[in-house]
Task: structure prediction
Amino acid sequence: MPNPPDAVKYVGQMVLCLKPKGQEDEKDGWNGVKMMFSNPSSFVECLRNYGQRMKYLKSHQVDKVNKMREHNAKEMDKIDSINSSAAALFTWVTSTVNYYEVYKKVEPMQQKVDEMSALKDVLENDLTETNELLDRL
Result:
């Protein structure tokens, strides 16, 4: 698509900001979007596995996407009638941003759970050793 509707360009730029392949440069604009889309099966696979890359997503990327969504809200409201593929990608963008917001809240809690689980294992071993010592006495 050499010159798509603006709404399609906006969605492509939002996806580009999220760097699904990990190496995209948002400064490349529409040419970068076309390069990102150049291998559809690889691109779709990157989208499917994006959750594994969530820890690499930066808040400035999400902020930029959110600003683009707000600035282009009127076009995004009509995206379903403009291009169904772009609409599906916009749904992915929205879902990814929402997932990121949850991930950033849950990640520190998950780290705390991991730390506490490791401590629990150490303390259980200490308890076992203490009980064995008491049994011998």
Summary: The first helix runs from residue 6 to 18.
